[in-house]
Sequence to fold (303 residues):
Amino acid sequence: MLTDALLILAPLFLGFALALENRRLMTAIHYLVEALVYFILALLGLGLGQMEGLSDQLGTMAVQMSMLVIVLFVANMAGLWLFHRWRPMTPEPRDAASGGTGYVRLFMAAARPLLAVLAGVLSGYFLLPELPQAEQVATGALMLLLFLIGLQLRNAGLSLRKLLMNTQGLGIALVLVISSLLAGIALVPVLGLPWHDVLALASGFGWYSLSGIVIGDALGPAWGGVAFVNDVLREIIALAIIPLVIGTRPAMAIGYGGATSMDFTLPIIRSSGGLSCVPVAIASGFLLSFLSPVLMGVFLSLG
Fold:
């Protein structure tokens, strides 16, 4: 397991160590990352579709996923509410001239990962024979994805020093990590897994393409599916609650988005909370994007 954890972390840090200046190459990397995400999710669905006794396990998986989502939501929002009381932040009024965010478009984009997994499930269940090399292919694709994401993080035009000095964003990220791990501890007797595996499940922070395949490799396709749906639902719930709470409790809105606050949910954070929320969201999302694979790798290596 320790070797697997190092395989997860090494490509991310290797990519982050390389500086690139060719903007055309960075654009190509962006599209390659997007294609790899959907490819990995389809392979995750394929493993689920070919899992023995899938139909008998769906009810159990739904209960496990629901408990994970609910307990994480309550713990995260409680922790972020306390952080807001301690370090209140007042966002700018919404800029009417900037227009509204296309919520329907964003929700449809959030649903695409689910469709990719569903396509894999249906293909595996009805069409394709068992592919013995699928797990190795998925692991290789994940390592390439992490390397490219490391490149993107390094070359996103962000000052690492400024991100680390954004105490509001770092505080939000750390509160989300701590509250998620406390939720994981509370879920140990409910989920029936060793404590370190449950903490790995709780460490996805919305990064579904990572958590689904890493947890699936370590704990089996059923738990990979639970981890994936949990993190996709975090993204979808964040899209719904950000406009509702960012005006009064921005830490809760930014924090619950997890790792997505620096990319997918950033447009809604910007349009609903103003420019002052953007550096906070980027700092929080950046730190969570690094901590998620680190924590998952460490916890799974304890098995």
